[in-house]
Amino acid sequence: MTVFSTSSSTSSQVKGGQLAWPGLLALSCAAFTAVMTELLPAGLLPSMARPLGVAESRIGFLVTAYAAASFVAAVPVTAALRGLPRRPVLCGALLGFAVSDALVALSSSYPLTFAARLLAGAMGGTLWAMLAGYAARMVPAERRGRAIAIVLAGITLALSLGVPAGTALAGAVGWRAAFGTLAVLAVLLVVWIRLRVPGFPGEPRHARVPLGRVARRPGIRPVLSVTLFLLLGHQVMYTYVAPFAAHVGYARTGLLLAVFGTATVAGIWLTGVLIDRWPRRTLLVALGVFTGVLLVLGLAAGAHAVLVGAVALWGIAFGGAPTLIQTALVDASGPADADVATSLQTTVYNAGIAAGSLTGGVALDARGAGALPWTALVPVVLALTTVAAGRRHAFPAVRRAVAPEADQPAGPGRVAVPCTAGDHAVRRSVGHGEGQ
User: Fold this and answer.
1) Separation CA 230–CA 282 (nearest Å)
2) Which of 227, 232, 252 is CA-nearest to residue 242?
3) pTM (2 d.p.)
4) What are the tens digits of pLDDT across the range 364-388?
């Protein structure tokens, strides 16, 4: 929360414009743990199916269960918990992950395992709704973009390194040990967060903005639309990269995925450097590069060097785009209401994943793998167009979040931090102290 605060703990996070590295890295590890918990079963289909007595497709449904629960829970759970201090809610979500992963590690019953995955999904919906807003509240407004990039780097590291490493660990010591390790990691993270992440109060009832009003704020719907379009287009290609590679005669799908994962790390690093100075321009370039990549894949992917290069550019462009979009959402909503706005984005994000996978599958069955880049191109162009048109509220050339504050100078014992209009409602509750 970017506020005028009398809390020494909160003030210490923003003093001198410094990033609160220990706390931000803890949140990044929380993102890493969430992605690992969500996706690890996808790499363990054969090894999990036999002990649980089900077909491999049923193990795949464990990933579906997580996504579905996250989709359903994000908005109502976030709304229900708005009044509670933020740090206990964050720790509670991580403890929920620990319980879920421990149950999966110990269970020999598919129904129990499925129920544990539903619990993990609900915790994931709660966690994702909090992370960007929490990061924004830990730093000055002019550092929000970089702070969010650091936290969301946990996603990239989980996709590029964590999931392959987790799969390898499961192959060496068993899938139960892999899930047990995730449970232990979640508990250790709770300790880290209690020690190094500041506490923030929940929203008093009289200061809460209704969810519908947050959704109707200028800029929110364009940002959510870009989220949907980008994930839909990305998922059309990413879900079916193996059949597309086979279509163009490239047999090393694993190498393509490794190139993509490594490039996303570069993309999120580059975004962290640029986001606080040129967020709109950086997002336009990223979406423009992704559009160009899809054109190249549609026209010239038969040249394998071109294919690998295009996939690398795709990874760079996509690696930073979610951070840019989420920063725009926090700016449009204000950190005070970022949890609610991000819960809406979590729902839209999962809808985009589901819609993209479904759309890509329909295109693959109806027109073959060669149609995938052209199918993905349409929503990506829509995303690019929406950003280009959203100059006033959603994706401004100059971030209002870092404009000089005119109405309330700093007083004794206060740290002057620029904020958005959405922050003003929170100031009424600042004097109540820091939530524990």
Assistant:
1) 15
2) 252
3) 0.67
4) 888 888 999 999 999 999 999 999 9
